[in-house]
Amino acid sequence: MNTKIKQFFSTKTFTKSVKDFLLNNYGTDKLFSDFSNKQIYLNYSVINEKKLDAADIRANLAQYLRENFDSALLIFTRDDLEGKIPGRNGENFLLNGFNTARSGDLFIELNPVSYFDLGGTDRTTHGTAYSYDTHVPLLFLGWGIPKQEINDPVYTIDIAPTVSNLLKITEPSGCIGKPIIK
Asked: Which residues lie across from 39 on neighbouring strands?
């Protein structure tokens, strides 16, 4: 039985492993651009220069990660998320946060007891789907806001329609949240 409660991964070691995979399979580690917020970013200028297939690189790298990092619970590529419409619920937190222009190329969600080293501190990031990380108090205070306690799940996307509703203005374009306070 594994009694280890928390498992930390060095981002430096993880990045080196990704670069080594790219070097061994594509002849250069310059295909790697960055690793941030559990997302791997590829260098498209090098991919295009070498006339490589970006989707192939993403798929092969995802398969490598699935086979070599057993603490990775979920691994998605941008190909898995592009063209899909996010929803209000938290069922697919990666899709809800995906932006084609800004998001990475591979997305990694670790199991609940594994963490990427964030500078040696033990903390939550509010960037996972686990309740220990997503359960955050939300308070609205001010004139005209009724006193109430809501214990139903609410989502970040509910903030803009709530504020719009309180100000009696139109919700932002593309808003998919629902007002929390009615």
From this structure: 36, 107
Q: Checking DSSP bridges between strand 39-42 and strand 106-110, what pairing results, if any? A: antiparallel
Does 91 reside within a domain? yes
C-alpha dihedral sign at 87, 91, 97, 103: negative
Domain that residue 174 falls in = 136-182
Residues 67, 17 share a domain: yes
- How high is the mean pLDDT in each 10-residue block of the chain (182 residues)? 61 92 98 93 97 98 92 88 76 74 90 66 60 76 86 85 92 88 79
Helices 11-26 and 54-68: crossing angle in degrees, nearest 10, is 130
| Contact yes or no for 177/158 (Cβ under 8 A) | yes
> What CATH number does residue 108 fall under?
3.30.1360.150
